[in-house]
Each structure stands twice: as C-alpha cells, then as structure tokens.
Specification:
The protein is of the alpha+beta class. Helix content is 34%, strand content 23%. The strands form three sheets. The protein has a five-stranded antiparallel β-sheet. A four-stranded antiparallel β-sheet has the order 7-8-6-11, with helices on both faces. A two-stranded antiparallel sheet has the order 9-10.
C-alpha cells in the first residue's frame, strides 16, 4: 500500500519524487509497478502519468489515458449516493485549489462498466518556489461490506471457501450456506445473507435485448464481487437475482451492508449503442438465528425481499 502522509516532511519528500520522475528512472520504475493505482496531473488536470496499478484497478491502459484530461470523466467517480464528483467535488481539483491533501472513499467505473469501491488520496505537487503545478492521486480497492463484527472472529476452514474473484454458482452458495450454519452452531460465528433482485428484469431485457441483458448481469455480478471481502461469497441465485453470504455480519449490521450494496449496484452501467444503461435493485436480508437450517434462513431473506426489501421505498424505475 502506498502511504501518503500529512506531515510536511513526508509530503515534501513525495513531491520531490514526483517532480523528478522524468529524471529518475528508479523512482519511476517503482511507481510504475505498484499495485496501488497512482496517476499524476498537471495544473490543467491533464494526465501525465498512469501506473500499472491504475491500469489493473480501472481496466484503462495508459495509452488510452495519458494526455487526456481527468475532467473527461474517465473513471466517473461517484459517491455512495451515486452523485458524480468529477466536476463539482473532485478531490484533485480541491487539492490543487487549496494545497491540502485529501482522503475520500469513492466508487470508480471500470472500463467494462462495473463499479469498484476505492479509497482515494490526493496530494498537491509544488515547484521549488512552493507554487502548485499539479496533483497526484493514489487509489486502491476497498470492501464496502465491512462491519463492527469483522475482527471479532478468526475465519478459518470452510469460511474461506471460494476466495477467488469469480462469482459462485447456486450449488456452491448452498454448500457455503450450510458450512456457515455449521460454524454458527459450533463456534457462534455470526453471518447474514442478502438477496439482490433486479427490478422489472423481464421488461428491461425485452427493451434492450438479450445481449445487453447478459452484459448487464455480468456487470452487476462483478460490482457485487468487488464490493465484498474475500471471506464473503456472492453468486447468481436465479435468472435475475443474486445471493450474498456475508461473513461475521450480525443482524444489527446487515441493513447497512445491504444499503451500501444497493447503492453501488445502482452506480454500475454499461454502454450500449451510444446509451448508458443501468438497473435498480431490491434487497432482502436475514441473519443466522439459533435453530436455523438452509431453508429457514433463505425463506426469511425471500420474505424480506417480498415485503419491499432492506430499504423499502428506495426502489425507482430502472433505466
């Protein structure tokens, strides 16, 4: 992880490195290969540098980005309420205006359309006379489904099934659900499940076509996977729905987790024949209770979904 300190000494050292990138191949090579995304803009917000980490997290190769202006909304940063921040509340712009470093949590749009939760850090770049001549931003993936119970239990064995980045299928989710219930009984490790249903999916598919629907389902699934931690599991549950199993998540927390998942999914979109398409979702949640079996906890989640979901009243017509 690239750490950018608020202390003047550390910040000046960082600025010195940035200003000498062209002249110092060693520092440039180090920044190039960091897994943390790093990019640099000049005073006009033209992108001068885009490292390997930025390519990996965003999906945009440097040849498609360097030389362009970040105000072109390449990453389309938005906050948790789906407000685009690139034009009105851009951390780079604010940092260049007042010279103060900033740390914010946002969602960027991957080149393929899905949303990625990121922690963003912006610092100003100054010349030897102290004049601001640009800014640097670092960003790295984060999980939105963190909760107060996260550090209370050490996760081992069956809780670590499926820690790859791919989506689980229904059979895996059922096996994982059974394993989680066993851990709940034997070791009192709490967990919750969240059903995510795309609103009016048949109408959406009829309007935009099967290929657009297939692409949208992939984007929603990847957005959910990015939002969760490696110890969580998420996959397709049926034609227009997903199921997430959230480890170390108690009943007091599942509502807030569901609210965050809803917002990030509704930030995701695909480009289709010149249009940007998105969906809205309804969520239903349930937490493990004594005496639960697979069917009972799934039934409670479905009942929550049918009653309007975790955030009833938030559903709006889909795009």
């Amino acid at each position: 992880m690239l750490t950018l300190s608020d202390s003047p000494a550390d910040e000046n050292a960082w600025v010195a490195v940035m200003l000498n990138l062209e002249a110092n191949d060693i520092f440039r090579s180090v920044l190039d290969t960091l897994r943390t995304g790093v990019y640099i803009v000049d005073e006009d917000r033209r992108i001068l540098f885009w490292n390997d980490g930025a390519e990996e997290i965003s999906g945009f190769p440097r040849q498609e980005v360097v030389g362009r202006f970040c105000r072109e909304n390449i990453l389309v940063h938005c906050d948790e309420n789906n407000r685009i921040v690139c034009s009105k509340a851009c951390p780079l712009t604010d940092t260049m205006r007042d010279g103060k470093p900033r740390s914010v949590e946002l969602y960027l749009r991957h080149k393929e359309g899905f949303r990625v939760p990121v922690s963003v850090r912006a610092v100003p770049l100054k010349d030897q006379d102290g004049h601001i001549i640009g800014a640097a931003e670092s960003f790295e993936k984060r999980a939105v489904a963190e909760n107060p119970d996260h550090h209370r239990h050490r996760v081992t064995g069956e809780e670590c099934l499926g820690e790859d980045a791919s989506l689980a299928d229904r059979d895996f989710l059922l096996a994982r659900l059974g394993a989680s219930l066993t851990s709940f009984v034997e070791r009192h490790i709490p967990f919750s499940i969240v059903r995510i249903q795309i609103d009016r999916w048949e109408d959406w598919e009829a309007r935009h076509g099967h290929l657009a629907a297939k692409s949208m389902l992939s984007v929603v699934g990847q957005t959910l996977r990015n939002a969760l931690r490696p110890v969580d599991a998420v996959g397709r549950w049926d034609e227009d729905g997903f199921l997430a199993i959230i480890a170390q998540c108690s009943a007091e927390v599942v509502e807030s987790v569901g609210a965050l998942l809803e917002k990030i999914v509704e930030c995701a979109e695909i480009e289709w024949w010149g249009d940007r398409l998105s969906v809205t979702v309804t969520l239903g949640g349930a937490s493990a209770e004594p005496g639960d079996g697979v069917e009972s906890i799934l039934q409670r989640a479905e009942e929550s979904l049918e009653l309007g979901g975790i955030n009833s009243g938030d559903c709006v017509p889909s795009t």
